[in-house]
Amino acid sequence: MTTGVRRRMGVEERREQLIGVALDLFSRRSPDDVSIDEIASAAGISRPLVYHYFPGKLSLYEAALQRASDDLAARFVEPRKGPLGARLLRVMRRYFDFVDEHGPGFSALMRGGPAVGSSTTNALINAVRQAAYDQILAHLDVQDPPARLELVVRSWISLAESTALIWLDGRRIPRAELERQLVHDFAALAAVGAAYDEELAALLRRVFAKEPADGPFGDLLGRLAALAA
């Protein structure tokens, strides 16, 4: 007969476990609705022990947010090969994978949660947005963007956030349609900006010249042509 012996976790291992447990709970309910007692129970430890590793719920929330924000920023990383439209579509699929997996936590973060307004939280959110912005510029092969291109890219990132939040509220539009629509939105925003900026127009001509007729951008042109007919 053997007796099971519970292995004692090291400090970092225990912290990582608690962050993982918190993220799992936050993926199903708003962080506001998750108590330290629930986190402790799910981790199989006592409430006082949670406070041994994190001073309070806010610090645990911020640690979980750090991991989640790193994950979300990584969703925008895409090999710079092939047509831009197809690349953006793959990025949007991964982005909505994250939103789907972490719905309540994502919504609480963007709409207001226990750590929103703190300098740490704001810095993490802004870091994700900046990472997305840098990735899009890299795909466009632009290092010093003109003002209108910066406006296009940052507006599109905000639109992706808003679209995801609206989708989470009832999921009334098929997710796959929204992923493609957001790629179309990027092209549309860029096209409007290009109408006022020749530098941006020249960039778009180079991008569109590499797009296949059956790609996301070609699909948008077909839909617009049908609308105008």
UniProtKB/TrEMBL annotation:
Gene3D superfamilies: Tetracycline Repressor, domain 2. Residues 35-54 bind DNA. Residues 12-72 form the HTH tetR-type domain. GO terms for molecular function: DNA-binding transcription factor activity; transcription cis-regulatory region binding. PROSITE patterns: HTH_TETR_1, HTH_TETR_2. Keywords: DNA-binding, Transcription, Transcription regulation. This is TetR/AcrR family transcriptional regulator. It comes from Streptomyces mexicanus. The lineage of its organism: Bacteria, Bacillati, Actinomycetota, Actinomycetes, Kitasatosporales.
